[in-house]
Amino acid sequence: MTFPTESIPLFVYGSLRPGMALWPEIRDHVITAEPATAQGRLVWHSGGEWPLLLDGNDLVQGDLVHLHPGAAPNAVLVDEELRFGYDARWIPVTLRDGTQVDALVFIWPRDSEVGAPIAGGDYVEAERTRSGRE
Hints:
Layout: E1 8-12, H1 23-27, E2 30-45, E3 51-67, H2 71-80, E4 87-95, E5 100-107, E6 114-117, H3 123-131
Antiparallel strand pairs: 1-3, 2-3, 2-4, 2-6, 4-5
């Protein structure tokens, strides 16, 4: 896979989103971040600790981040996502203004370890609700 030279467009839907637990791991590599949506199905991991994006037709809330290319962000992506069993795929994501952009996304490729659906396809809102910060 060859990344564009100017930036790596990455759709994040879970703990890599701005303000979430793993955001600090990529923050220094981010050029821009903006709200976006993608088609899929967002569910909890069977342990209920983090989200999994599955193939599907629901609307999943997330952010499109553009990362600086290079070894540092690539290492973060491999360390934080690929080694846990996700597949990296290019999919179309939709920005708030309706523009579609192809972005890299990490999709859970198996039926195992799949938990309950995340209401509204929005991990950030689900975390707020779970922690009582509605």
